[in-house]
Every structure is written in structure tokens, then in C-alpha cells.
Amino acid sequence: MSKKIILIVDDSEFDRKLLHGALTKKSDLDVVEASSGDQCLQILSQQRVDLVLMDIMMPGTIGTQVLTKIREKFNAIELPIIMVTSKADASDVVSCLQTGANDYIAKPVHFDVAVSRISTHLKLAELSQEMSRLKEMAALDAMVITYNHQINNPLAIALGCLNEPLFVDQVMGEKLTSSLWRIADIVKKITVLTEKKEIEYQQYLGTSKMIKIS
Amino acid sequence: MTDQNLPPLSFDQKAFLSNFQGMEDLAEQTICSFLTTLPQLVFAVESAIQNQNPKELELSAHTLKGVLSNFFAEPSRLLAWKLEKMGHDQLIQDASQVLLELSPELTRLFEDLKFFMNGRKLECPKK
Predict the structure, then answer these.
(1) Would you call A86 and B37 a contact, using CB atoms and an 8 Å cutoff?
(2) What residues of B are in contact with residue A14 (Cβ under 8 Å)?
(3) CATH 3.40.50.2300 is right for the domain spanning A5-109
(4) Can you give the residue ranges of every domain in chain A?
(5) Nearest Cα to B23, choosing from B70, B62, B81, B85?
(6) What is the pLDDT of residues A17-58, one digit of tens each?
(7) B23–A26: do the CB atoms touch at under 8 Å?
(8) Which pLDDT tens digit goes with each residue over A47-56?
């Protein structure tokens, strides 16, 4: 699995380098840096970032403005944002949390605390995304069961009609019989698959947007 | 890292060492970087006061305050915060006075950090 990427946004090169160094030494994270809100947005548009650590105050930028722009493209689950702030910035912290920040860390940054908070938010994001996928699978499951049931009835009728004199023609009769029993077999396999309830998301969709049936 | 010397008052040595435990090389780099950068940080604050620019003062003092917080240097951090607040509130007429209080604190911090490095027989790389 590829490393998680943290984006540090701070106009102070001193603070950026320090946090970068500490996170690299204390964790298995990749770190990239931005010195401004604009550079932050540029990086986010160019590459995958898993979490943003952002200083609450930068020249020409208010933290909430950058937050708003980030949240237009990424929700709080897709991209957790932790604000870095000093103790006296309480009202700014509230504004940022209301605008979409997930959390904040107070300066001086205690590096062990920072790493723990980052890990927690990365894990939460991962679990939330997994929950969404499971909900999708459950909806898909219900849909498949419904369609199976809806197909079974007319299929039984069609198979029953094969004995009618209309289908006496051997060649046509054989083709129809073969096709209908093939449909019946696929319906049965889909029923078995949905009953298993252990299918990975990839087996449902993969790259072909079809269920894999062996 | 242990230290037998009396802790200086300009920064909380124990808190600093604790935060950098296991990253002693990063601690040295941080101190060296600070010793090099401090004059520029102070200059930015001085310029803002000279230019009577509250926004500039707020930002430069905020940056200085953030840097100082990494050393748990509470006396100077508080004064930097005072300057930041003056800039934020656009009441900078007494900012020069606060800067006069801050300067000796920064000098003390500068010397204490150099002493700290010397005590460990460490040297910052020469440019």
C-alpha cells in the first residue's frame, strides 16, 4: 500500500521544515509543503493528498477562505484538514471548525500528539470510505436479489412453453431450450453469490462494471 | 538526553528536550536554524512598527510567536503575542515599547540556546 501523503501549509519556512522533519522521523508518512493558500490549492489539484495540516494565519489569506475553497472540491472524509494554531486563536479555531476543518492542533506542536491526531483522522477517513462502499454493496445486493426474483417467474413460464407444439421444430426448440436453461443457470449462480455475502467490492464491479460469474 | 546544568529561564529546556526525544539531530538543526533566522524575524517586526502598518505587525509578530513557541520560550512568546494582538486590534502606538521589552528577552534566548549547544559540544554548521 502506498504511503499516506500529508500536505503542510504554512508561510513560515522555519515551522514547515520543522514539522516536516518531525513527521518524517516519527511516522511512515510522506510530506509535501506549501507556503501559501494558493500553493496549497495548486498542489491539491495536481496530486493526491491524504491530509492537510494548515496554519490558521498566513499573509493575504484567512484560514477559512482556503478551507472553503478546499471543501468545494473535497469533503471532510475525502480530505481531513487539521488547523495548526496558537492558544489565543480560539475564535479563529471555531470559525475554521465551522467552515469544515476536522480538528486543530495548538502550538507549540507536540510532535507525538500531532502524529497521533494525524493517524486517527487518516484511519477515520479510511473507515468512512469503507462504510460508503459497504452501503453501495448492500444496495447492489438488494437490487440483484430483486431482479433475480423478477426474472425467475417469467423464465419458468417460458420454459414451460417449450412443450407447446409451436416449438416442435427441433433446431429452434433446441436453441430456445439451451438459451433459457443458460439464463436459469446464471440466475441460480447470482442467487448463490448474493447468499454468500462475502464478496469483495472488486468482485462486484472490478473494471468491467459487471458481476464476475464463474 | 540529560542535562546537569541549571535550566535557563528564557526557554523550557525540559519541555523542548522531551518534544525532540529521539530526534536530537533535528533539535540541533532547529536551534541552528533559529539562531540564523532570528534577526530576519525581528527585522520584520521592526519594519512593521516603523511603517506603522498594523497588518504587517500582526503577521510578522504571529510568525515570530509561532517560531518561539517551538522552544517553549514563554516570556518572549507572550511579548510577541502582545505585538500580534496590537496589530490585530490596529492599536500600534505602544508597539515600540513592547518591542523594547522583547529585544532583551530574545537576546537572552539567543544566548541560552548557544549555551545549550556548547554544553553538548555542538556547533552550528558555518555558512
Answers:
(1) no
(2) 33-34, 37, 67, 70
(3) yes
(4) 5-109, 133-204
(5) B70
(6) 999 999 999 999 999 999 999 999 999 999 999 999 999 887
(7) yes
(8) 999 999 999 8
